[in-house]
Design brief:
Layout: H1 7-24, E1 29-32, H2 52-61, H3 72-81, H4 89-96, E2 100-103, H5 113-127, H6 133-145, H7 149-170, H8 190-197
Parallel strand pairs: 1-2
Helix pairs in contact: 1-4, 2-3, 5-6, 5-7, 5-8
């Protein structure tokens, strides 16, 4: 689905979400992963793909000195010395509504409750495989319609437990062996989340 979705579409949806959140809940924190469409940069840094003239324009806009005879490689070195912090469209959109965006670290799906929900839905479908694309579409819709708010809360708590574990590690706190995320028996396991929906 990532190939059929882009930053413009996501930002349009995000603006609608921010409007709704501001109206119903006030300022919120919005967590996003590092998907490309979540991180459209408003101030892109020049790369080797840029034309020399575009790199020169980038430098001139920032009043950075360079010689007119400098080759592209030299210009790129100059831009590296003047690297700017990234400014993302999603962060700007959220800020317009007094919301704040936080990005989860890469390669940590356990911090994304939606990944747990996807797993719940996919596990249900895997039990009874579809034979046609139409049937698959129906099974996907049926599987997601059976995800309850209780399952969402459990998925959120599971992700928060992982977050707490990582924060404790970052803070240098001593953790008891039974606090390890890998063997986390306090949070709901995937089979528990799936089983609960069957009732």
């Amino acid at each position: 689905y990532h190939g059929n979705f882009n930053a413009v579409q996501f930002e349009d949806w995000l603006r609608k979400l921010c409007t709704t959140l501001a109206r119903t809940h006030g300022p919120c924190i919005i967590h996003l992963d590092g998907a490309k469409y979540h991180k459209r940069q408003l101030n892109p840094q020049p790369t080797t793909k840029w034309l020399k003239a575009d790199i020169q324009t980038w430098l001139m806009q920032r009043r950075i000195r360079f010689t007119s005879t400098a080759v592209k490689a030299v210009l790129l070195e100059i831009t590296k010395a003047h690297r700017e912090p990234a400014h993302y469209a999603c962060v700007q959109i959220a800020a317009e509504y007094d919301h704040r965006v936080l990005y989860t670290p890469p390669y940590h799906p356990e911090l994304q409750p939606i990944e747990i929900i996807w797993a719940v839905a996919k596990n249900r479908i895997a039990v009874d495989l579809a034979e046609t694309m139409d049937e698959l579409g129906q099974k996907i819709a049926a599987s997601f319609s059976r995800v309850t708010s209780n399952t969402w809360v459990k998925a959120l708590r599971k992700a928060q437990g992982c977050e707490d574990f990582y924060m404790a590690m970052a803070d240098g706190e001593a953790l008891a062996e039974d606090d390890a995320v890998e063997g986390d028996q306090d949070g709901p396991q995937l089979d528990e989340l799936v089983g609960e929906e069957e009732q």
